[in-house]
């Protein structure tokens, strides 16, 4: 095994101890096989008793070279690969990529396609937040919400499955619109879901929001200020919980988001509890968006006119969307051929993970778990 | 020889007091066997009840409704490779689970399942129980140390700190209950487990309701402390799965690991028994004075039989609901057989000689089972405390309350 001190040089560790028992400081290796690191994240912790003196994240255990693969695939062929990055929010990944390519091609998806995109992306946001809530609560020790959220997430996955045949890595959208028209009964299914879910969200809140242990475990834990968030590039619910009202759906509306009326929930304290409240409220706002979209969904084509062989003009483009975890950006450089010269993904999880050390330094081991949970990282996206 | 064996049956004392080694041995085997079976039943019940809290089915494959799952698990654990890490201190590693097991099983010597149904009755019974059960901290520390690994070490330190600090509040709550036993004409209390229940009998109330709400508060303090003492949710930090993988027994596997589990569950039953003895009237049936008299005695003595019959009926309902498919035939027959066995036990319990002997055991076990269900309920509901918060609850909340209750109880005792 590699000597952990090489990773921890900036922590001024000094000489390694003869045995770990001689020292007041303890270096433990959390992960990559650990129940609470949400996959294969490895965190090296420097501890004084239970207190965290510093952390070092070691990532890359799930690196598949997604960005490099893009350089050897056509624009269309690369589309399914993006689903494998943030696999719990595959629809948002696909949406971001398709919109980025549309932007460089300078085509517009038809309105109906945009509405379908919004509905599916918001459903996916709900699914992602449900999975986050279940695992976050499980990390803090509440087992039961996990099963409740998975039960309800199942309904979303069923809609995805009926729409495009896949549940997780959906590949729901195509460059220029959607490949599939909505299936018979899609609107009824979504409406039924909209009536089904609000009481369930209340149920989760009932278990946690006012639970004394939950509040004690999350209030004041993993504090990060709005300025620090901006300095580190942290986005999404983490940023909003620190009081910064920044949501790309409002700030730079894409798809059909400018048509809908919804709020951006923000918190004040920037702690784990606020992030929890913000995400719970975001779930309700997503329901609001879906309800408006399903009522106003226009008729019409679902595919824009795009050439059979996609050959964007020479140039580069950056397009970002609000994925469930934060700003998901695609930077595409085109050399005019059928394959992108370079695709760079700005994954929210990867950038948000940088804040971990700042958030847990000086707190306790148990808080590291809570903070990893509250950052809502997906290692597939961190490592790509 | 036969006379020796028979002579005890006429005595009105525990075998330990009567000095009857034969029956003492029989009692030891019955109690330890019973506890082991109870641990297995608890294992099944916990997985099943927890599953139903969490909209799952729980074990369903091994035997009807997973009834044989604990046996399958035990067999699996027995046949697993026994791993001792190369860097571990082998002797300490080997002996740690045994200490925990012994500590949690030894306390059953004084648990009174009935006025005569205990292995023996020590005059320092409750002290003995608290003392021996706290020895399991030693096993935890040894296990954490001997593993020579970071996670077990942190888990063991957490565990020992937690167990030691909650014992203080627990002990003070116990003392206030012991004080209540001295509220009689002679003014002398007792530490004997049987004596404590008899004191409740004499004072015609459970100590839970004594000096209301003092007894109740002491009981609640004890009920919280005992969850922490046994390292169960929401105080299960030593084995916090999401933080320390498995705490002090991370490096253990197979049989040794199962000894830890056996010890943990046995300790849960043991502390629940203390709570039942001290505050819930031990083996006494509900309302022994309010609903006194021959008729009520008869009615309450039919409860054990009816309970088993009800369980049998559940089994038969299960049989009726089983899918009619050849794959389930063996399970259906098994479940029906289990129902018949339960029904026969239920019928036996109606017979007067049996009825009179198991009556008190039944009520004791029912009360303990209630606590066991609470354990599962906590686990399904609560998140986990953080270590500093746990210490805060122990020292800054429970301890002052326990001291206050103790002082008030003493004052009330003097006034009374």
Count of extended strands of chain A: 8
Shape descriptor of chain A: globular
Terminal CA distance of chain B: 51 Å
N-to-C order of helices and strands of chain B: HHHHHHHHHHHHHHHHH
Strand portion of chain B, in percent? Answer: under 5%
Roughly what percent helix of chain B?
55-70%
Structural class of chain A, by secondary structure, is alpha+beta
The largest sheet of chain B is:
none
Biggest interface, and residues per chain?
A-B, 33 and 30 residues
Instruction: Walk across the major sheet of chain A and give the strand order.
Output: 1-2-3
Radius of gyration of chain A over all CA atoms, rounded: 21 Å
| Integer-rounded radius of gyration of chain B | 22 Å
CATH architecture of the largest domain in chain A: Orthogonal Bundle
CATH H-level homologous superfamily name of the largest domain in chain A: Cytochrome-c3 Hydrogenase, chain B
Note the main sheet of chain A. 3 strands, antiparallel
Residue windows where pLDDT falls under 50 for at least 5 positions of chain B: none
Question: Could you give a quick summary of the protein structure above?
Answer:
Chain A is of the alpha+beta class. Chain A has helices spanning 4-7, 66-70, 75-82, 90-105, 111-140, 144-164, 186-208, 212-218, 226-232, 237-241, 248-251, 272-296, 348-353, 355-360, 365-375, 379-383; strands at residues 25-30, 42-48, 51-58, 173-174, 177-178, 315-323, 326-334, 340-346.
